[in-house]
Amino acid sequence: MIKQFLALRYSLVEHNQRALVTQELPTPKGRAITISIEGDREFNANGVRYSFVGFEFINPITDEFPSERFLAGKMAKYRQAHLGTKVPGDIQEFDVDNWIPIHVVVDVFGQYIFVQKDYKFGTEEQICNALQEGLRAPVLETYNHLLFIEPKLETGRFWSIIKEHSKIYKVDLTMISPNILETNKKARQALEELKKLFDQDDITIRLRNEKGDLRIPPNPISEYVDYIEEGEGKWAITTEGGRGGKKTHKSIESAMTFEITTPAPEEHAEESNQLKIESKDMQSDISHEAIMVAEVYSAISGITRK
Question: Whole-angstrom Cα distance, residue 35 to residue 142?
Answer without folding.
Answer: 8
